[in-house]
Design a protein that fits this description.
330 residues, alpha/beta, inorganic pyrophosphatase (n-terminal core), Diaminopimelate Epimerase, Chain A, domain 1, 5-stranded parallel β-sheet, 12 helices, 11 strands, 17% strand, globular, binds manganese (II) ion
């Protein structure tokens, strides 16, 4: 528990904080950044959240999510950057440039990705934590600061979404204890779940239908994959963030061990975003890492240069290699 004390020590020594997280914001990164800002304010500090990407529409209902800015001011005045839920500094997108330029500022790295590169001056990386939200909750406990109902909601959503509604194996008894304590602030789990998962548009469901119709299985039936092309995105007018979670449908097929969603990057031609999920013991973080990405053992991602056809071929053959390696006990 020395790492958490180091984080608090570093916070105590600074006054103005820049908070940021990874590109492609989702529940954990948004909820934990908002909660960290509340904590810093409660500790008498000034703090602002700046992210490379905007908050996706379906997460805008999180309390104070509208105060997350995407404006990067190069002359911005801060003492320390708190980077949350981010395995590498590069994953902060455009904010990375600002942080790496300001070498005299402290970088506090708070994360739960097993692939975290410990890029901070102070690093608190706990791969056993379900979510960054769980770590921020511990910061509240350690500092003795009180949670508000709004912050409890932000942390609950962080944990709920990163554990796949407490379904993934990153869910521990501690995760449930924390969630239980957060519910004690007057949250209604059914209403929260409805807000997060049941406010899709008809367009979102049509997009899901188009993506699901691309599903393919390998010969052995243990790898399932989907694709999302720019054409489909354009046709539906949907934004790429809407495809978060689609890959789980591929994983839910009986006997599937690895599921993949290949998505063309909208702005940058010739780059494919790859989401990897596993069921059982396959470590997809190792597969993602071999392509310069990373994440967790059961959920990882990477961005690979090439066309959809090329990237599918190389990623699928890497998966086969790992599965075959397992079968022969290597
Ligand atoms: Mn996370």
């Amino acid at each position: 528990m020395n790492e958490i004390k180091e984080v608090i020590g570093a916070i105590n020594r600074c006054r103005r904080f820049l908070i940021t997280a990874h590109i492609n914001l989702e529940g954990d990164s948004i909820g934990s950044q908002l909660a960290i800002r509340e904590l810093l304010n409660a500790m008498g500090k000034t703090a602002f959240i700046i992210d490379s990407d905007p908050v996706p529409a379906h997460y805008k209902f999180l309390p104070k999510a509208n105060e997350i800015s995407n404006k990067i001011d190069k002359k911005m005045d801060y003492d320390a950057a708190v980077v949350v839920d981010c395995p590498t500094l590069k994953r902060t997108g455009k904010v990375a440039e600002l942080i790496s330029k300001n070498k005299n500022k402290v970088v506090i790295n708070i994360d739960h990705h097993v692939s975290n590169e410990r890029f901070g001056d102070v690093n608190w990386v706990d791969p056993n934590a379900s979510s960054a939200g769980e770590l921020v909750f511990k910061l509240f406990k350690e500092t003795g600061k009180r949670l508000t109902k709004e912050t409890a909601l932000n942390l609950y959503i962080a944990i709920l979404t990163d554990t796949g509604s407490f379904n993934y194996d990153n869910t521990s008894s501690l995760t449930h204890e924390i969630a239980g304590e957060l519910l004690g602030y007057g949250l209604e789990p059914a209403a929260v779940s409805e807000s997060v998962y049941e406010r899709r548009s008809i367009g979102d469901i049509k997009l899901l239908g188009l993506v699901l119709s691309t599903i393919k299985l390998n010969n052995r039936g243990d790898v399932a994959y989907l694709e999302l092309t720019n054409d489909v995105l354009k046709k539906t007018g949907a934004d790429a963030a809407k495809s978060e979670g689609f890959v789980n449908y591929a994983r839910s097929i009986d006997k599937v061990k690895v599921a993949v969603l290949f998505r063309e990057e909208p702005k940058e031609g010739g780059r494919i975003h790859v989401s990897l999920r596993s069921k059982g013991s396959v470590d997809v973080n190792r597969i993602a890492s071999s392509f310069g990405g990373g994440g967790h053992a059961r959920a990882s991602g990477c961005v690979v240069e090439g066309t959809l056809v090329e990237v599918e071929k190389s990623v699928l053959s890497k998966i086969e290699e790992r599965l075959r390696g397992r079968h022969t006990g290597r």
